């Protein structure tokens, strides 16, 4: 006769619940996997399937009741780890969307906005176009599979534990957020530079021929130059996008190493003064 105690049931629940929480946190925040167009049952089913694959190979779980105070703290900690790993990859797509916003404002397409279901806001046409290009490139290089592989490795790098995490990981996520501005500006530099030269040329032309209507000819010219530059740089976007994806995945992989709880360092021992000696005569 097989007898099961409450301790055994709690252990089985915890061994699946805590890895599932980290996995669902990543799926919620990661690009493509966490998109609003993906139904919630599909996300939950994918998370449960991954948890059933990863949990048997994960290190031993802490002996804590999932409904206790310690168990709820572990649950919140695992959710933070998964969300941070997915958010580090989402920052890459935010940088690409910012490049599209800068390009649209420079071209004069600031009024051409669309509803973005991901952010529940409005984004420009060029931003949506670059986001679609980045999504297709991310799927073509199997970035979503590499991100899930980094998630599986995180259970060995940072096992499920009741010890509090090191606070250095949150600073790393904040520092990585600066990539939105630097990478977004770098990706939009060709369009901004071409349109800057175009605007300077239009200014010289208007100065030389004041009878020309700058507002009448300037807007179509800047739009045309902008579309030509966008079409020109598209074949060369593969390398910078791939580098950004690699940096995002490496950041997600390095976060668990930063969050490993470190043992407190003891202060160095204070040197004792040498014993006083009496002079001999």
Automatic annotation (TrEMBL):
Keyword set, alphabetical order: Bacterial flagellum, Cell membrane, Cell projection, Cilium, Flagellum, Membrane, Transmembrane, Transmembrane helix
Superkingdom of this protein's organism: Bacteria
Coiled coil: none
Compartments in which it is found: Cell membrane; Bacterial flagellum basal body
Transmembrane regions: 12-32, 44-63, 69-93, 129-152, 180-202, 214-237
Keyword Transmembrane helix annotated: yes
GO annotation, biological process: bacterial-type flagellum assembly; protein targeting
Keyword RNA-binding: no
Membrane topology listed for this record: Multi-pass membrane protein
GO cellular component, one term: bacterial-type flagellum basal body
Similarity remark: Belongs to the FliR/MopE/SpaR family.
Function: Role in flagellar biosynthesis.
Protein name: Flagellar biosynthetic protein FliR
Classification of source organism: Bacteria, Pseudomonadati, Pseudomonadota, Betaproteobacteria, Burkholderiales
């Amino acid at each position: 006769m097989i007898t099961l105690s409450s301790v055994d049931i709690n252990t089985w629940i915890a061994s699946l619940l805590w890895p599932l929480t980290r996995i669902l946190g990543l799926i919620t925040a990661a690009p493509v996997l966490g998109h609003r167009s993906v139904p919630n049952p599909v996300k939950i089913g994918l998370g449960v399937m991954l948890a059933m694959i990863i949990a048997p190979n994960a290190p031993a779980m802490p002996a804590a009741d999932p409904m206790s105070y310690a168990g709820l703290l572990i649950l919140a900690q695992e959710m933070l780890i998964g969300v941070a790993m997915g958010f580090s990859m989402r920052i890459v797509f935010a940088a690409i969307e910012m490049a599209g916003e800068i390009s649209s404002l420079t071209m004069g397409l600031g009024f051409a906005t669309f509803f973005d279901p991901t952010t529940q806001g409005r984004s420009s046409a060029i931003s949506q176009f670059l986001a679609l290009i980045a999504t297709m490139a991310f799927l073509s290089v199997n970035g979503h599979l590499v991100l899930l592989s980094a998630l599986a490795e995180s259970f060995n790098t940072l096992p499920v534990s009741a010890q509090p995490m090191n606070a250095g990981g949150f600073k790393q996520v904040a520092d990585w957020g600066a990539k939105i501005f630097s990478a977004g500006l770098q990706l939009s530099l060709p369009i901004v530079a071409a349109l800057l030269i175009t605007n300077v040329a239009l200014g010289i032309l208007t100065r030389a021929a004041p009878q020309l209507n700058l507002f009448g000819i300037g807007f179509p010219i800047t739009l045309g130059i902008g579309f030509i530059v966008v079409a020109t740089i598209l074949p060369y976007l593969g390398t910078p996008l791939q580098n950004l994806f690699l940096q995002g995945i490496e950041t997600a992989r390095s976060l668990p190493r930063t969050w490993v709880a470190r043992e407190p360092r003891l202060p160095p021992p204070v040197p004792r003064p040498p014993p006083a000696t009496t002079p001999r005569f």
